[in-house]
Amino acid sequence: MARRYDSSTTTFSPEGRLHQVEYAIEAINNAGTSVGILAKDGVVMASEKKVTSGLLAPARTSEKTYKLCPHATCTVAGLTADANILIDQARLRAGRYAYQYQEPIPIENLVEHVCNYKQAYTQYGGLRPFGVAFLFAGYDIHHGFQLYQSDPSGNYSGWKATVIGANNQAGKSLLKTEYGSSSSSGDEMKTDENPAKDETEMPTTVEALRLAVKVLNKTMDGAAASPDKLELFAMTLDEDGNCVHKILNAKEVEAVIAEVESETATAGDS
Amino acid sequence: GPNCDLVNFSEYISKNLALYELSNDGMKLSTHAQANFCRGELAKALRKGPFQVNVILGGYDENVPNGGSLYIMDYLGSCHKVNYGAQGYASNFTLSIMDRDWEEGMNEEQAVKIVEHCIRELNMRFLLNQSNFIIKVVDKDGVRTVKADSDPSDN
Description:
The structure holds 2 protein chains of 2 kinds.
Chain A: H1 19-28, E1 34-39, E2 42-48, E3 65-69, E4 72-78, H2 80-101, H3 107-120, E5 132-140, E6 144-150, E7 156-158, E8 161-164, H4 168-178, H5 205-219, E9 230-237, E10 243-247, H6 250-269
Antiparallel strand pairs in A: 1-2, 1-8, 2-9, 3-4, 4-5, 5-6, 6-7, 9-10
Helix pairs in contact in A: 2-3, 4-5, 5-6
Chain B: H1 3-23, H2 31-46, E1 55-60, E2 68-73, E3 79-82, H3 90-101, H4 108-125, E4 134-139, E5 142-148
Antiparallel strand pairs in B: 1-2, 2-3, 4-5
């Protein structure tokens, strides 16, 4: 039934679906996972690098993490070539806004612009949609640190923590239970005298990095985590209030992986 | 400037700023951003069909020290953040008054007094008889008119 209505982006199916857009979203479910977590003092994004080969030239650019402007960075899940076009768009938009208003672009403004660009490919021109999902991490004075997710349809939403790419459902369910509960408190039974906190407490960037690695451990399905398979990114503010974009080096990644390993080991003992 | 450009340009800018607010979930642009947007439009039009408009833009922002900021722009697209300013023939008379009288950290009452001083000077020394000066104040509560003299159209 879908076959007659699925080859053109500009055609609705009788059930009111755009199959090309849905297929684009499917394409991303095979891509390397990327998890984003909002922290008290920053945003953290961890990505699985799918393309690992000893023969690869040392990377000058990442395949997952891209800086868009002084106060925003994104990670990509999906077709890298498609992503490059959209990243150019985002960088242009951020630059033009800064030129026009002499001020950094509000993050939602930037995300919406990229998403409107994506949406056009679901409605006009007969061209296929972009097979990319993004996690945008950014900071502005209006809303502080923010995390947004967008998909090929051009939809976007703000998140405290989310996962895109392969096994994202498993990752999201882990985040649901673990985000907001302090990792050191351990097992506290939810009883009537001890009700679950109404407000989830945001982790620190350090805690968030560990949680992100935990999530990737789950989505990567038992494959051993190592610095050449993981890319860890953290955005924070320095003392002058400027954004610091940090992609952790191999040693730092190794350290976080080790911390997570020891944490899970001790948790298993109780 | 000429009334046609004055109305056209100022409405163009103010409606675009209103559109920004609508498109961005009620977020307002800072005075700094508004001034630079305005100056950018003057600069863009300059080598096509210039607006013969000089601008003084004042605004209040919470996150700015002392809250208020003032920008002065001319029709060629220059823009400066200033403590006081004047456009037109008035500047020949009033800038020196403000040079002497303005001080850091004045309150609204003192600032209005300086403006009134300038108006008195113009009434005395300027060859044109201008009976209708309107004094407005911009602060955390928005824009309000402090004084409006007689409207010539009433005569």
